[in-house]
Write a structure and sequence with these properties.
It is an enzyme of class 4 (lyase). The protein is an alpha+beta fold. It folds into two domains: 7-71, Orthogonal Bundle (434 Repressor (Amino-terminal Domain)); 82-146, Cyanate lyase, C-terminal domain (Cyanate Lyase, Chain: A, domain 2), CATH 3.30.1160.10. The chain is 48% helix and 18% strand. It starts with 6 loop residues before the first helix and ends with a strand. The model has no long low-confidence stretch (mean pLDDT 94).
Length: 149
């Protein structure tokens, strides 16, 4: 019996197939009727996919069942420390390091004692035109979870 393909290996095959087939991530998300950011995160190994989703992605990308099997595994969520050197990923960490304490204060002021869920959570990205250069708009949409005693 062979081991199940690691999610990182499946992600590399998916990225290569997407590029070679000249597909956008949004094409793949539309194929499986999934939110764009969630779909990309799942294809990069951060969420498990349902069997039907994994099979449709693999059919679209001409990838075999080993990739579909890997896409269905429960992930070990997190980030590879080596990715911290990537400027885009580092800037997200930097932005949260600077603004998270202020956001925490504002959440407590507006909602009370609790947290924003990262499980019951949606995230989206949009481009907004601006005369000084296009802007990246990232929206975090998490359910408020109050502390209950």
């Amino acid at each position: 019996m062979t081991p199940i393909m690691p999610k990182s290996e499946a992600a590399e095959l998916i990225k290569a197939a997407r590029i070679r087939k000249k597909l956008d991530w949004s094409d793949i998300a539309a194929e499986i009727d999934a939110p764009l950011v969630w779909c990309v995160a799942a294809l990069l190994g951060q969420h498990p996919m349902q069997a039907a989703q994994a099979e449709r992605v693999c059919a679209l990308l001409d990838l075999d069942g080993a990739v579909a099997e890997s896409l269905q595994l429960q992930p070990s969520r997190g980030i590879d420390p080596a990715l911290m050197s990537d400027p885009t990923i580092y800037r997200f960490h930097e932005a949260l390091a600077v603004y998270a304490p202020a956001l925490k204060e504002l959440i407590h002021e507006e909602f009370g004692d609790g947290i924003m869920s990262a499980i019951n959570f949606k995230v989206d990205i949009k481009r907004r035109a601006d005369p000084d250069g296009d802007r990246v708009v990232v929206t975090f949409d998490g359910k408020f979870l109050d502390y209950r005693w």
